[in-house]
Automatic annotation (TrEMBL):
Keyword Oxidoreductase assigned: yes
Organism whose genome encodes this protein: Solanum verrucosum
Residues spanning the signal sequence: none
Keyword field: Heme, Iron, Metal-binding, Monooxygenase, Oxidoreductase
Entries under Pfam families matching the protein: p450
Taxonomic path: Eukaryota, Viridiplantae, Streptophyta, Embryophyta, Tracheophyta
Binding site for heme: 81
Cofactor or coenzyme needed: heme
Molecular function via GO: heme binding; iron ion binding; monooxygenase activity; oxidoreductase activity, acting on paired donors, with incorporation or reduction of molecular oxygen
Protein name: Uncharacterized protein
InterPro entries for the chain: Cyt_P450, Cyt_P450_E_grp-I, Cyt_P450_sf
């Protein structure tokens, strides 16, 4: 959700009136895109921003629920994702239900280090080259 956010530019927002955000003047009716993809990789806020280190969140106070604006994979404030409470439960459940029953491995010659994580940009973000993984059921 930080390195590869599902909705990289959030949904388009429109300024209802002239407003100044930090040093930026945003005229009424401007269409505003919030680049959460780039915010999640900003070295100003993240140590080793391009590394996948999920443990960075273990003792961190950074919250995804509309409080810490360096990490808003569900957006924020009035137009925050309505499905967020469902999504945060479902993501864990879906991941657990594919990880638990199988032993997964990468195809021959492929290692986690040489996985191509390039993205295909769109309203939603997807892997440019789909992940190939081989499920294996342990024989008892
Ligand atoms: C991991 C899963 C999900 C992610 C990362 C996600 C992310 C987002 C993001 C970034 C937005 C745009 C927020 C903005 O522009 O400020 C959004 C909007 C929305 N999402 Fe999700 N979403 C997820 C799952 C869901 C689910 C499961 C539902 C419904 C059951 C849902 C319903 C909505 C709706 C209705 C909006 C529009 C809210 C509005 O414009 O007022 N989302 N979501």
């Amino acid at each position: 959700m930080r390195l590869h956010p599902a909705v990289p530019l959030l949904l388009p927002h429109k300024a209802q009136h002239d407003i100044q955000v930090l040093s930026f003047n945003v005229p009424k009716n401007s269409q505003v895109f919030v680049n959460v993809w780039s915010m999640g990789r900003d070295p100003k806020y993240w140590k080793k921003p391009l590394e996948f280190l999920p443990e960075r969140f273990i003792k961190s106070s950074v919250d995804y629920k509309d409080r810490d604006f360096e990490f808003i994979p569900f957006g924020a404030r009035r137009r925050i994702c309505l499905g967020m409470p469902l999504a945060i439960r479902m993501v864990n459940l879906m991941l657990a239900s594919i990880i638990q029953p199988f032993n997964w491995k990468l195809p021959k010659g492929m290692t986690p280090e040489n996985l191509d994580m390039e993205e295909q940009f769109g309203v939603t973000l997807r892997k440019a080259i789909p992940l190939v993984a081989v499920p294996n059921v342990e024989k008892k």
